[in-house]
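Q: I'm a student working through a structural biology exercise. My instructor gave each of us a protein and asked us to get a predicted structure, then write a short paragraph describing it. Mine is Monooxygenase. I'm not confident about reading structure output yet, so if you can add a plain explanation after the tokens, that would really help. Here is the sequence I was given:
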Amino acid sequence: MFLTMNRFRVKAGQEDTFEDVWKSRDSHLKTVDGFVSFHLMKGEESDGVRLYASHTLWRDRAAFEGWTKSEAFRMAHKGAKSSADMYDGPPVLEVFDSVQELS
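A: Happy to help. First, here is the predicted structure for Monooxygenase. I'll explain a few features afterward.
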């Protein structure tokens, strides 16, 4: 398994707008080979910023890299710059390879 995580610092008062953008967008993920699951997580607010993280689980790194080069990826991210004013800085991408899995 391969996990990607984008961390977002959303300005206080912009939470509903941020969540609406995510909930209403067509991610096209379900059509991508190797996609397993997606979660948008809401964290604590501190110093006027609310933390969020999007977690996407993939079959493997190759599946994620294929997604980033696909038309589906371009379509899912086409309006990202139009909502940049709600963020306190750019998102931070982190990637993780699985070393142990329990089910």
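A: Here are two points you could use in your paragraph. The chain has a mean pLDDT of 91. The radius of gyration is 14 Å. It's a good idea to check both against the output above yourself.
Q: Great, thank you!
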